[in-house]
Design a protein that fits this description.
Blueprint: E1 17-19, E2 22-28, E3 34-41, E4 44-50, E5 62-64, E6 67-73, E7 79-86, E8 89-92
Antiparallel strand pairs: 1-2, 2-3, 3-4, 5-6, 6-7, 7-8
């Protein structure tokens, strides 16, 4: 995955840069608040952090060393989906 992310207002996200499977990807809610931040190494998700639309850190998301659960929320605060990782690869969605 190579590329950058964009904020809802059209600005380039300054901390998003994934090239050749390495880097950081940040996604935002329509409100402009941070939604998720994923770090990638060799194309695999290593650590990941997620926030609820109100800005609270997600208490469930915990991906460390490529293992754990990553939860995404809809703009209305309901859970959109969750992904389980093992060794940086998706094993359940």
């Amino acid at each position: 995955m190579t590329g950058v992310s964009w904020k809802p207002n059209g600005e380039k996200c300054p901390v998003t840069n994934v090239k050749d499977g390495n880097g950081v990807s940040v996604w935002y809610y329509e409100s402009g608040k941070k939604r998720v931040e994923g770090n990638y190494r060799d194309g695999k998700t290593v650590p990941a952090v997620a926030w609820k639309p109100n800005g609270d850190k997600c208490p469930v998301t915990n991906v460390v060393n490529g293992n754990g659960v990553w939860v995404w929320y809809n703009d209305d605060g309901t859970e959109s989906f969750r992904t389980t990782y093992k060794d940086g690869e998706i094993v359940k969605r």
